[in-house]
Amino acid sequence: MSLRPFRLAWLLLVLSGAGHAATELPARISQGDLVLGRTSPGSQVAYGERSLRVDAEGRFVFGVGRDETGPLRLTVLHADGRMETLEAPVQPREWKIERVDGVPQSTVTPSPEIAARIAREQAEVSAARERDDARSDFAAGFRWPVTGRVSGVYGSQRIYNGEPRSPHSGLDVAAKAGTPLRAPAPGVVTFAKPDLYLTGGTVLLDHGHGVSSNFLHLSRIDVKVGERVDQGQVIGLVGATGRATGPHMHWGMNWFGVRVDPQPLLDPAGNR
C-alpha cells in the first residue's frame, strides 16, 4: 500500500475488557491529513456530527482541516452493542507564504458578473464533492499523477499580485503543457468541464466515502462524468487554463467539504 500515513505504526486505543477488538488510528495525525482508521466490521462510527462509512473490512476514513486544532473525537458503536470513545491530538504544521505575480487581475478582483459566474461554478464543484459512495477506492493507495518539481504546496498562504487570498488548496507540480495526467487512484468521474473561469479545465475524481481528487488548469480532458477510471489511467493533459501563470499540475483533495493534503499520501521515491 502506497499511502504513507497509512503505513505508520498504529495507535491502539483499547476497549475496556480483555479480548475485545479495538479501533485503530494512525499514531500521528497532522493538520491537513486524510486519516484511515479500522474497526470491527459492522460498527457505526461518528466523527463530530457525521456518520462515517465502514466497509466490509472495517475501514473508515475522514479528513482533518488545515486549521483544525483538535483533539479529534470519534465514537464507535460495535455490532455487539459495545460503545467506544476515541480521542486523538492534532499535530500543528507551519505554513509557507507564496507570492504569485502576473496572473490576470480580473481573476484576483473580478467584476460582479464574473464573481457571480465563479460562485456558480464553484457551487457545482462543491456539490460533486458531497457524493458518498460505498466504494473504498481510496484504500488502493495513491501515486503521483505527474512527476517533476513541486512548485506549490497545500496550505500555503497565497498572495496574488500583492493581494492576500485563500490558502493554496492542493499540490502543484511543474510540467510541460500536454504532459499526460494519470489518475492517482481508482475512482469515478463526477465532474468534468473544460472552461471554468478560475480553474479552467477541471476534473473531479471520486474515490469513495467522500474522498475526491480535483485536477485543475487542464488543457484537455479525456474522461466524462460517470466514467470509472483505473489507477494510472490518463484523464487529461497538463495545461495553464484559468488562473495560472504557466502549465502545471494542480491536484487538490477533499473529504467532502474538507480540503486535505495529497502530498503526505505519496511515496517521495515515486516522483522521479
Secondary structure elements and their pairing?
Blueprint: E1 10-13, E2 23-26, E3 34-38, E4 44-47, E5 50-52, E6 59-63, E7 72-77, E8 83-88, E9 97-100, H1 105-108, H2 112-128, E10 150-152, E11 157-160, E12 163-167, E13 170-174, E14 180-182, E15 187-196, E16 200-208, E17 211-218, E18 220-221, E19 228-229, E20 234-237, E21 248-255, E22 258-260
Parallel strand pairs: 9-11
Antiparallel strand pairs: 1-2, 3-6, 4-5, 4-7, 7-8, 10-13, 11-12, 13-21, 14-20, 15-16, 15-19, 16-17, 17-21, 18-20, 21-22
How does this structure look, described?
By secondary structure, the protein is mostly beta strands. It has 2 helices and 22 strands. The protein has helices at residues 105-108, 112-128; strands spanning 10-13, 23-26, 34-38, 44-47, 50-52, 59-63, 72-77, 83-88, 97-100, 150-152, 157-160, 163-167, 170-174, 180-182, 187-196, 200-208, 211-218, 220-221, 228-229, 234-237, 248-255, 258-260. The strands form 6 sheets. Strands 10, 13, 15, 16, 17, 19, 21 and 22 form an 8-stranded antiparallel sheet that branches. Strand 11 (157-160) and strand 12 form a beta hairpin. The longest helix has 17 residues, at 112-128. The two termini are 19 Å apart.
